[in-house]
Amino acid sequence: MTRRTSDVASAGFSPTTWTTDALPPVELSTDQREKYRLLATQLLSNTLRDYDIYSADPRQRPMSRRRWKPVKTRDHITVYKERYPTPSSLASTDHLSGPPSRTSRASLADRVSMAFRSNEWTEPKLLVAAGWVEGTLDDVMYGVSSPDAQSMLMKATVVKNALINGAVLACIDAPCDADPFRFLGIKWFVKGPPTGLQGIVKPRDLVFIEATGITTRPNGERIGYQLLHSVDLPQYRDMEPRSGVEVTRGRISSCSIFREVPAGLGSRHSKVDVYVKGYVEAHGKLLDSVALTAASTGLMSSWNSVECANLKKLMWCFRQQPDWGCGRPLHLSGAISCALCHQSTCSRCRVSRTLKEVNGELWLRQEDVLICKRCVLQVDNLAAVDVARAESFASTGVTTDTGASNTTLPTEEEYSLSVLSPTTDQPIDSFRGLELQPEIDEQSDEHQEEKENVPLSDRERREQIWSQIVELRMVAESIYQLTLETSESLNTPQRTHR
Question: In which residue ranges is the amino acid composition biased (Basic and acidic residues) (predicted)?
């Protein structure tokens, strides 16, 4: 164990507060998995219905100051607190606790509410976050998704959400080729107290289901979503003896909707509409304020999801290099070489980036490198869905209890939602049945026979194919940028000298 620890440390990794054995995994029955699917369907359906009302009426865009009080703003996203609960908002909390009315029909929401009526909330308060982020829907979803503990820790270091431990307790639906952003499972994490309240407020731990993915509506519109909702599992009710941290059990219930909208006039960048609906419990005046601040921060965590996605894409590019992972510094020729393309660059044409990598032991490796702006542009323009598929192919740690489900769950609305299944979108490229051509190498016949006797595994073959595809796209993007620059220079009027 000591030798393994020293080997990890020698590779540049440092220990974190996260541990791999904090909690044992949970085994879910078929009925439990179905209940979680139903609950996720209800949450997403309710939030989509509210979002349709919000997005259809231009008067709803500036949130009514009479009903909503701004709590926190970051960049272009603002969190609002409901001043006075309305009958509609009170009715929308039925999924949080309590059995349905006897006079109502046995709808999907009723069955879910009955299944989870033991999960009672105390005076839940409604919060809504609305705004937009610059980027594509795929970039946002790539930054949001975290199907395992490693990606959870990586995301926490970028978002800076004060998580001190976390784990995926059960994976019901894992990412797949058709929808690499899909995930449904049970997670657990411990969130540290707010700054300045250490010793006064205990860390809070949460056990919840999380579902992420992209669903395609009947009109062809792609909608991204992320929902989190606390669940009560008997085996995880008392976490203090197992986790080793004195914590207080918290609750969470939120659903985020992401929709890509066309770029405005004069803008070359896409925008993603963000709408989040969540609840927070009341705990008295002091703790209510603390809980409100923490919940507001959580609801607007998607504000830098594109930044997280670009970091993950950058890390994926570095992992394609043969020297990555050996622990040696990436600086090649002093401070004038790009760490990615190894080309010399001046101070005006390079930027600093902090690379972050999490290993299987949940240790973190960070390194500051210099990257030329051309490489930054190429990495940022990589298709996030392609990189996510490549990572899904290469991953061996994400498993599913039920396998890849292709079932579309019906809802009570006039449309159906592929909440926990692949979207109807077809993959950009299909590589099934393709064989890699052997490389021509000037070696002896004996060495060539040895290479032929050791075929590539399916995972290695997929990795090579995806690497080649991404490289071709990077070359195409580079050619496009050069063509664009040349066109702009030719169209620039030349000054005439008299």
Answer: 445-459
Taking residues 478-485, report their average pLDDT. Answer: 61
CA-CA distance, 250 to 294, in Å (whole number)?
11
Q: H or E element: which one contains 70?
A: strand 68-74
> β-pairing, 222-230 with 253-261?
antiparallel
Is the CB of residue 204 less than 8 Å from the CB of residue 214?
no
Give the alpha-carbon dihedral of 42, 46, 49, 54, to 10 degrees. Answer: -150
Per the listing, tokens 């009958």 go with 87
With bands split at pLDDT 50, 70 and 90, how would you rate the model's confidence at 66? confident
Express each pLDDT in 164-185 by its tens digit. Answer: 999 999 999 999 888 899 999 9
Percent of the chain with pLDDT over 70: 60
This prediction's pTM: 0.74
Q: How far apart are CA 33 and CA 172, in angstroms?
A: 7
CATH of the domain spanning 12-304, picked from 3.40.50.10230, 3.30.2020.10, 3.30.530.20, 3.10.105.10: 3.30.530.20
Residue reference for tokens 């099934």: 432
φ, ψ dihedrals at 289, nearest 5°? -65, -40
> How would DSSP label each residue in 80-99?
EEESS--HHHHHGGGGTSSP
Q: Distance between CA atoms of 379 and 485, rounded to whole angstroms?
A: 18
Structure tokens at 473: 């796209």
Residues ≥6 apart with Cβ < 8 Å to 451? 438, 441, 443
Amino acid at 492: T
Asked whether residue 458 carries a pLDDT value surpassing 50, the answer given is yes
Domains of the chain, residue spans: 12-304
Query: Contact, 173 vs 185, CB < 8 A?
Result: yes
Buried-exposed string 446-462: b where 16+ CB fall within 10 A, e elsewhere = eeeeeeeeeeeeeeebb
